[in-house]
């Protein structure tokens, strides 16, 4: 409601137009006239103030033109049809529902300053001029046609917008919408003619279609801006009709794209354009993007384009996959597939609709990868693994991970490859010497592939371990034996191939192979035999390395596995302490002795079993042996000493023409050389009788002294082999630049008999373990069936064993009255207390 202000002079006040209609100019001005009465003016100011205080209420009331009268004051204001009460102390202004209040006359004898009553009357609703709707539509039609023809619009857009608002305000919106819809449809129908009779190539046709679509979109944007009031009032309130923009899309879809000829030519052109791009030709991606966006906006993208596009894609890549698999190597084919997949991703990024992503990529992956999965793996995986092509293997893994069964098939072939290659290394006797090193190298290669190429996939890592465990146990006991010997070669003195850090890493790798072997007791037997040699002969490269290996074995297999090995180290330490006391004892017993003697005391249960060997020792040595025996038994009564001359070694002082030397030899070599103090020449038979050394051992000993690098004896006649008639003489002309010369005993290659002996020893130990396990189980369970007993034995035993061997041990225990069979059920065993 406007704020009325009265003064002594006459003035005009403009009334605000809440509807902002174009009829504003027809409204009369508001005139305010004031009488020269101070009290009346005061009353008017008071009432105006009260009316202004109620403005927050009045602004939500629909306005109509009313007339206010107060004696000689008249004014036009916008008021509500409803009753408005304005209170000011005891004064009241009231507006009835019809806009006229009850007349109440002012008292003639009213005091100065008393309030006057206003009389408010309704104005009649303004009417539109005649033919206003027709004239307005003509102007609107003219503007729409101009927009469709890309011509300038003569009438301002603001006036057109106001005209649409006036028509909607006066309930003409339905007719206005129908007229606009008809006008748009006529224009679109005229546009379709250029596509029906067009004789042009597919590229020009697509450009014409794109131009038509872009023009239509721009036209509808302009038209909607003019008819925005219609779109936001009538259209928004009427659910049965489309918005102006959607109505334009529907007209375009109905009259142009749904035409079979137009639609077919458009889609054919799009497919040809994409095919050209796939063939390496340059295309207008903006054109493709615009037209595909058009199909998407018209909601015909899937039915009209996507189905045919995926069919053509499938046909293209099906033929391409068949052709290239026959003509390309697998690495080149994989690179081509990766390139194709990336190209399709680019198309999705630039112009294809996002809904096409999944079916398109699946189609490409199926035709180029899934359909050729067996061929790719059979033809290429082994080649890539053999040549260590990590980049191509990584690409293969990435591509296989895209398809459903890809990684499963890749893992299976990877497993088969490892078993195939590993079996060749393990089962071939010619590779025994290099078996462990080849297995270590092979394991490193496969670990590298699993880590770098296969993304540390747990499935591949487990498959690698399973494959190694499977093939390394195909040849029973031999891998365990060779691993033990390989460790011996690395821990033996003189191994200068690696530093301590490198040796530690190598031992860690060896332990990985050790975990795979089932016959760990075989490894223990050979490792213990070699460790004994290293400790007794002093050939261990490093005590720290030995103890590190022992710690790793203990961590892997437990304290029981390494208890004997630890006992061997303990014996060596105790022997060192014992020899300090013995030397003091020897100084008291024989203060001027010419021989320095060192003895190692070995506990028989810890060390390998050695065959006792009796030889003829020089009297000086026998004397010292007896002195040590008295010393030891004086400290440890009840024990028995058994000498092992085959494990001994000596340092001899030798006199030659060229000068004196010190010879570091074995005890057997020393026994032979000492004979030449009494005579310069001996036959083979003479030496054998004098020393009592076993024949084969004696021949190897003489061969090392007379046929090796340091020939302190001369063999007559000359030759490499020791024959029965050979004679040996002292070589006084022996020369060597070194003062101390080590003459190595010729190592006899381990014969089949010795290997069989070691394995037999392992087998015997296994029998004892089987017997103990059976008794332990039966003592706990008292009664068991045969099958359950075998099952529990397999759980407890840590080495591979056949059911027939277990049955033999059960029979043996029955014979020894540890078990008995049930009288009624022979498959049931009872423990005999």
UniProtKB/TrEMBL annotation:
Localisation: Cytoplasm; Nucleus
SUPFAM superfamilies cross-referenced by the UniProt entry: Cullin homology domain, Cullin repeat-like, Winged helix' DNA-binding domain
Keywords (A to Z) from UniProt: Cell cycle, Cytoplasm, DNA damage, DNA repair, Isopeptide bond, Nucleus, Phosphoprotein, Ubl conjugation, Ubl conjugation pathway
PROSITE patterns associated with the record: CULLIN_1, CULLIN_2
Chain intervals for the UniProt region annotation (Disordered): 1-56
Start-end of Low complexity biased regions: 45-56
Pathway(s) per entry: Protein modification; protein ubiquitination
Domain of life per record: Eukaryota
InterPro entries xref list: Cullin, Cullin-like_AB, Cullin_CS, Cullin_homology, Cullin_homology_sf, Cullin_N, Cullin_neddylation_domain, Cullin_repeat-like_dom_sf
Domain Cullin family profile: start-end pairs: 478-706
GO cellular component: Cul4A-RING E3 ubiquitin ligase complex; Cul4B-RING E3 ubiquitin ligase complex; cytoplasm; nucleus
GO molecular function terms attached to this record: ubiquitin protein ligase binding
Annotated Polar residues bias: 1-21
Coiled-coil spans in chain: none
UniProt-listed Pfam families: Cullin (PF00888), Cullin_AB (PF26557), Cullin_Nedd8 (PF10557)
BP GO terms, sorted: DNA repair; protein ubiquitination; ribosome biogenesis; ubiquitin-dependent protein catabolic process
Family classification: Belongs to the cullin family.
Name recorded for this polypeptide: Cullin-4B
């Amino acid at each position: 409601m406007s704020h009325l202000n009265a003064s002594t002079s006459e003035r005009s006040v403009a009334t605000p137009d809440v509807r902002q209609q174009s009829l504003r100019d027809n409204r009369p001005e508001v005139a305010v006239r004031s009488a020269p009465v101070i009290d009346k003016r005061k009353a008017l100011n008071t009432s105006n103030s009260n009316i202004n205080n109620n403005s927050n209420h009045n602004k939500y009331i629909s306005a109509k033109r009313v007339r206010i009268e107060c004696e000689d004051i008249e004014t036009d204001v916008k008021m509500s049809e409803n009753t408005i009460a304005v209170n000011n102390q005891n004064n009241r202004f009231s507006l009835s529902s019809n806009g006229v209040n009850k007349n109440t006359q002012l008292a003639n004898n009213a005091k100065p300053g008393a309030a006057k009553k206003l009389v408010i009357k309704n104005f009649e609703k303004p009417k539109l001029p005649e033919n206003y709707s027709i004239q307005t539509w003509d102007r609107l039609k003219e503007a729409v046609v101009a927009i469709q023809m890309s011509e300038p619009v003569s009438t301002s857009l603001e006036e057109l917008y106001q005209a649409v608002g006036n028509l909607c305000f006066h309930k003409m919106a339905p007719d206005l919408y129908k007229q606009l819809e008809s006008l748009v449809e006529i224009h679109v129908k005229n546009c379709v003619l250029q596509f029906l009779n067009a004789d042009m190539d597919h590229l020009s046709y697509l450009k014409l279609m794109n131009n038509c679509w872009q023009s239509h979109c721009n036209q509808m944007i302009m038209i909607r801006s003019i008819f925005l009031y219609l779109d936001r009032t009538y259209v928004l309130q009427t659910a049965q009709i489309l918005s102006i923009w959607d109505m334009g899309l529907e007209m375009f879809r109905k009259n142009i794209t749904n035409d079979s000829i137009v639609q077919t030519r458009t889609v054919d052109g799009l497919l040809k354009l994409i095919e050209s791009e796939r063939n390496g030709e340059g295309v207008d991606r903006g054109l493709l993007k615009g037209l595909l966006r058009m199909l998407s906006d018209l909601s015909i993208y899937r039915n009209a384009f996507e189905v045919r596009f995926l069919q053509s894609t499938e046909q293209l890549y099906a033929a391409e996959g068949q052709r290239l698999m026959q003509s390309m190597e697998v690495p080149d084919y994989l690179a081509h597939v990766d390139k194709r997949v990336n190209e399709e991703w680019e198309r999705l990024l630039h112009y294809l609709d996002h809904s096409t992503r999944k079916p398109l990529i699946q189609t490409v992956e199926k035709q180029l990868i899934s359909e050729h999965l067996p061929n790719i793996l059979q033809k290429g995986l082994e080649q890539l693994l053999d040549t260590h092509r990590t980049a191509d293997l990584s690409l293969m893994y990435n591509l296989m991970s895209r398809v459903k069964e890809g990684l499963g098939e890749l893992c299976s072939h990877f497993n088969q490859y490892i078993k195939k290659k590993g079996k060749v290394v393990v089962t071939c006797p010619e590779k025994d010497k290099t078996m462990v090193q080849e297995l270590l190298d092979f394991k490193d290669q496969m670990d590298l592939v699993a880590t770098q190429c296969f993304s540390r996939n747990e499935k591949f890592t487990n498959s690698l371990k399973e494959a190694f465990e499977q093939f390394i146990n195909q040849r029973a006991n031999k891998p365990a034996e060779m691993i033990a010997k390989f460790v011996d070669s690395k821990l033996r003195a003189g191994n200068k191939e690696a530093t301590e850090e490198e040796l530690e890493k190598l031992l860690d790798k060896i332990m990985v192979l050790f975990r795979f072997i089932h016959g760990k007791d075989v490894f223990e037997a050979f490792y213990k035999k070699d460790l004994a040699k290293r400790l007794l002969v002093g050939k261990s490269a490093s005590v720290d390395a030995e103890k590190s290996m022992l710690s790793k074995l203990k961590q892997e297999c437990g304290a029981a596995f390494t208890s004997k090995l630890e006992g061997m180290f303990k014996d060596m330490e105790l022997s060192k302490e014992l020899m300090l006391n013995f030397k003091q004892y020897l100084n008291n017993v024989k203060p001027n002795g010419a021989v320095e003697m060192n003895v190692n005391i070995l506990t028989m249960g810890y060390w390998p079993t050695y065959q006792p060997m009796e030889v003829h020792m020089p009297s000086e040595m026998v004397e010292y042996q007896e002195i040590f025996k008295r010393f030891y038994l004086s400290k440890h009564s009840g024990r028995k000493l058994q000498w092992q001359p085959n494990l001994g070694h000596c340092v001899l002082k030798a006199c030659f023409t060229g000068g004196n030397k010190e010879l570091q030899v074995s005890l057997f070599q020393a026994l032979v050389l000492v004979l030449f103090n009494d005579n310069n020449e001996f036959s083979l038979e003479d030496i054998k009788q004098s020393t009592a050394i076993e024949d084969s051992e004696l021949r190897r000993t003489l061969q090392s002294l007379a046929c090796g690098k340091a020939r302190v004896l001369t063999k007559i006649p000359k030759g490499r082999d020791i024959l029965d008639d050979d004679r040996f003489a002292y070589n006084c002309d022996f020369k060597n630049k070194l003062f101390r010369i080590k003459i190595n005993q010729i190592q006899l290659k381990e014969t089949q008999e010795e290997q069989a002996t070691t394995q037999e020893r392992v087998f015997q130990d296994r029998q004892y373990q089987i017997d103990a396990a059976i008794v332990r189980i039966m003592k706990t369970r008292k009664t068991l069936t045969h099958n359950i007993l075998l099952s529990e034995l397999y759980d407890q035993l840590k080495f591979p064993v056949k059911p027939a061997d277990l049955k033999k041990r059960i029979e043996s225990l029955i014979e020894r009255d540890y078990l008995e069979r049930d009288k009624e059920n022979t498959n049931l065993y009872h423990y005999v207390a």
